[in-house]
Design a protein that fits this description.
alpha/beta; three-stranded antiparallel β-sheet; 9 helices
Length: 314
């Protein structure tokens, strides 16, 4: 990744926070913000660009006035989409966001044909699937950001419960980015000590419930979705790919036989590096977890089927 150029489509709170996080660590050479509201992208690019005087390296921050300004990006992060409104059915939301994803992906294919796509738009796993279908690219190059955020939320809840190990907590989850996510306490740890040897089963159930409710809890207080944690989670994944760090991170990826499933995007642990997904790690799941994983996969497929029934992929 010679240019180390990152495009971020969607200059809302999440996209802008990701851009700011990347400039503060100085891990990429250039960040380009693109939004359907060009003034929003320009204003935030100027503001973030002015903050780089106090960052480790002089990251360049620009706004893309036109999609062609996303030319030659190494990684393109897609956060664009609309939230569900009260009068929308699930099918309405899926079709609207899938059409947005289709337009964005077509521009990425045209102007950054060698890029890795990091999908953040919701519903996450289904939108990641849409990106795969639109591009036909190698499945290593299209990744959904979910587990990085959910894992951070779980680590936060673990620390709140036990009161120690901040910064040493590593949480692992699989499944969809939603109520069917599956935290795995047996391979989560504080300072290398397995979590199931530290907390009680009842405490673990409380941690899991609070993790699943993590986004809704923030909305209840802020009146808007979270953006600091999602923005930082995006930046961590981008940095891992730019630096070829080979870190293990739960991510939504296209399965091709792993875990017994094909043609579906769902969260599983992967190794992230310069090629995107360097390896999918296939865990040995017990029967109870397999059953939960199937429920998660089925919920994602229901969304994909809605798109198919509406001839979206035709």
């Amino acid at each position: 990744m010679v240019g180390r150029k990152v495009g971020i489509v969607g200059a809302g709170f999440v996209g802008a926070t990701a851009a700011y996080s990347l400039t503060m660590t100085g891990r990429c050479h250039e960040v380009v913000l693109y939004d359907i509201n060009s003034d929003l992208a320009i204003g935030k690019a100027i503001d973030i660009g002015q903050s780089t005087s106090y960052s480790p390296r002089g990251t360049i921050v620009n706004a893309a006035v036109d999609a062609s300004d996303l030319k030659d990006c190494d990684i393109v992060v897609i956060t664009a989409g609309v939230p569900r409104k009260s009068d929308m059915t699930r099918a309405d939301l899926l079709m609207i966001n899938a059409k947005i994803m289709k337009d964005v992906v077509n521009n990425v294919m045209k102007y950054s044909p060698d890029a890795i796509i990091l999908c953040v738009s919701n519903p996450l796993d289904i939108m990641t699937y849409v990106a795969h279908q639109m591009t036909g690219w190698d499945r290593r190059r299209i990744i959904g950001m979910a587990g990085a955020l959910d894992g951070a939320r779980m680590a936060y809840q673990i620390h709140k419960k036990v009161g120690y190990g901040s910064g040493q907590t590593r949480a692992m989850l699989i499944g969809d980015h939603g109520q069917n996510m599956i935290p795995l306490p047996e391979i989560s740890a504080i300072g290398g000590v397995p979590l199931d040897q530290i907390v009680t089963k009842q405490d673990m159930e409380d941690i899991i419930a609070r993790t699943k409710d993590g986004g809704a809890e923030i909305v209840k207080h802020l009146g808007t979705s979270a953006y600091y944690a999602p923005g930082r989670a995006i930046a961590v994944m981008v940095e891992a790919m730019l630096d070829d760090s080979q870190i293990v991170m739960p991510s939504s990826v296209m399965l091709d036989g792993e875990y017994g499933y094909k043609d579906v995007c769902v969260g599983v642990p992967v190794v992230l590096g310069s090629n995107g997904v360097e390896r999918i790690i296939e865990l040995d799941l017990d029967e109870d977890t397999k059953a939960k994983f199937k429920i998660s996969v089925d919920s994602i497929r229901e969304g994909i089927d809605i798109l198919k029934e509406n001839d979206f992929f035709v």
